[in-house]
Amino acid sequence: MNSQHVQKFVTVDAKNKPCPLPLLMLKRALKEHPHQALKLITSDPNSELDVIRFCHLRNIECDLTQISEIEFHFNIQCNGKNT
Predict the structure, then answer these.
(1) Domain-wise residue ranges, the chain
(2) Which backbone phi and psi does 22 adopt, to 5 degrees?
(3) Regions of the chain where pLDDT drops below 70
(4) d(C-alpha 78, C-alpha 18), whole Å
(5) CA gap 61, 52 in Å, rounded
(6) Is the pTM higher than 0.70?
(7) What is the 3-state secondary structure (H, E, C) of the chain?
(8) Under CATH, to which class is 9-77 assigned?
(9) Is 75 in contact with 39 (CB distance < 8 Å)?
């Protein structure tokens, strides 16, 4: 049996959704999965500022990886008390 720890996360696919839909989808996912890591995938460059600001104001850990000019991946970890 493999003893490696694999962190599971919930993927929120918000590609091709205009702002503010990616942020609204993130808020819903945080409420539905308060203690689970999330990966938010967006294609709207305006979502970058919205998501980062939202997470910062709530002390939610958020790491952004820009995959291309039109694809952004946010790795989000929340303890469930900040939403």
Answers:
(1) 9-77
(2) -60, -40
(3) 1-7, 80-83
(4) 24
(5) 9
(6) yes
(7) CCCCCCCCEEEEEECCCCCCHHHHHHHHHHHHCCCCEEEEEECCCHHHHHHHHHHHHCCCEEEEEEEECCEEEEEEECCCCCC
(8) alpha beta
(9) yes
